[in-house]
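Same chain as my last thread, 438 residues:
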Amino acid sequence: MTGHRDRRSVIRGLATAGAGAAAGAVVVGGTPAYAVGSGNDPHSVSVISKNADPTGVNPSDDAFRAAAAEVLASYQPDPISGAVPKKVLVIPPGTYRLTRPDSLLPHVDGVGVGIVDGVTITGYGKRLTRIVYAPTENDTTLWTNYQRYKNIRISGITFVSENATSSFCYAYSSATHGVQDTWYSDVEWQGGWKRGIGLDGPATTSNLNSEMGWDHCQIGGTYSDAFLVMGMTPSASQQDQFLNYWFRECKVEYKAGVFVKNNRGGSMNFIGGSYILTDAASTGTFFQLSSAAATRADSVMRLYAQGIRFELRGTGHKVIDSRWYKGSISFVSCDDTANSFKSWAPDAVTHVYAFNANGDRGPMVRYTDCALMGSHEVATGTAATTAGKLVYDGCRFIDMASATGAGGFLRWTGTAPRHEIRDCLAGATYAADVKNPA
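reply #2:
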């Protein structure tokens, strides 16, 4: 909560003296509130004080780099986790143009220099504070966390890409230099991106960017790779160890591409919010789960979605495309029927599972109290399922008159997978309960 208190102090100073006001403090409630841009606040550094241009006409890379340098230089030793900055980086209302990579935070390998524990970057709210990333070079990244920063808080900012080959963040962690615990609050992404956030690490033991969250964020734009890529090097078996990711009450409303691409394994939670693929002519998938390796960790192949309203606007849109061969996938009280009245809806295949990607097996998949459009498809081989199952409990299959079969809701390409359907509606009437094997 420290960053929130500092932000309120800065806002009080801005309201009293205005952005770029002369140096000095004003008294608010008996305590000093320093004017943004004054350079006197012992707890914050404003990019305005470093001559950033809030009109977006001139690049502000040098100002952002100078502000970040002052924040990082304000550290105090910490007996547990190393260097802890005393100051937060403040970005007042306006549009700021950045044209060079790593202008948000410096790209420094933490090995040899140590970890910075506790970095706060705060704007005044999405669309009030806007950072436009417009690099002239292709395939660059706005900020890189290479074994350097942990306990990061970024809030109240809209990030816009004007170069579709650009990525927002690349994060690399190791066992000795973990960069875990990053939270985004009230942050928005717009424009064309190659990738939002890519998570990586070495083949040896690593915590791999654990404990990362998005709270009341908005994901817009387009992604040629994905907004979040878990496992940038899937050939490394340690890339299974992605632990504890939370998306809470977010608006995931983007044009095209993949929202979350999990190339190995991970424990992921998606709670509440609105998820919309906005371009009916495009292809897009919210959750893409890969079968990149034959050996997988048991405890981290997990996806849990609850209370989400999905809106699929075209036949090329899917909620999930999974090739996991074990683990658990759960949808609870979710609804993807917004366009079930469209003529194409009965032909839409909205949830796809490959139980033949690695043997005749799949994850434990469960839908509870969900309203579901189109049909679900399971790719199977000629042999019976040896692991995994699909369970539908108290759901509604809004476009189908039967639960299974060629014209039913749950379909498969080969031998019937293990499945169970109970207390579900097919259209407006109850479907017969089904259990395989009986």
